[in-house]
Specification:
The chain has one domain: DNA Polymerase III, Chain A, domain 2 (Roll), CATH 3.10.150. It is 27% helix and 33% strand. It has four helices and ten strands. The strands form two sheets. Strands 1-9-8-7-2 form a five-stranded antiparallel β-sheet, with helices on both faces. Strands 5-4-3-6-10 form a five-stranded antiparallel β-sheet. Strand 8 and strand 9 form a beta hairpin.
Length: 153
């Protein structure tokens, strides 16, 4: 009887530990959702200050979004923003050549669209921080991107 009670207690604890909500991204094979939108002030606290920032108009980013299905990858180096799509295909700037070992930060296209639909602003800020890459529009910041490599889809 003691063994059954201990076993049932263990099962209840195991189920309660694994049934919590996940705040970052849904982890599925295929079209995994990557990224979380934070209030800008919270993002500044969690991810430190912006080291380098490049802005772009929403209309220009909308055109780029139309050229990929699931993911976007971003990098800023010496003031130059580079955007890749699915399969690390260069979307911006046109003709840019990248090295396969260059690290970009990947988020889901759906999360970028979600960010764009918050607030009325038309400027998007791509931000390199100490250890992460973020995208800010108005008072909202998209973060929890994945570095590619090694996490490339």
């Amino acid at each position: 009887m003691k063994r059954i009670i201990i076993l049932l207690s263990f099962i209840v604890i195991l189920i309660s530990c694994t049934s919590g909500t996940q705040t970052i991204a849904t982890k599925n094979i295929g079209t995994q959702t990557i990224g979380t939108i934070f209030d800008k002030a919270e993002a500044d606290k969690l991810f430190n200050n912006v080291i380098e920032s490049v802005n772009m108009s929403r209309s220009e980013l909308d055109l780029i979004l139309g050229r990929t299905e699931n993911y976007l990858m971003f990098s800023i180096n010496n003031g130059e923003l580079v955007i890749l799509g699915d399969g690390r295909k260069v979307l911006y700037p046109a003709g840019k050549v990248i090295n396969p070992s260059d690290v970009f930060y990947m988020v889901s296209k759906s999360k970028v669209n979600e960010l764009l639909n918050l607030g009325a602003g038309t400027e998007i800020f791509f931000e390199r921080r100490l250890k992460v890459f973020s995208i800010t529009k108005d008072m909202n910041t998209l973060e929890e991107s994945l570095p590619c490599p090694p996490n490339c889809f």
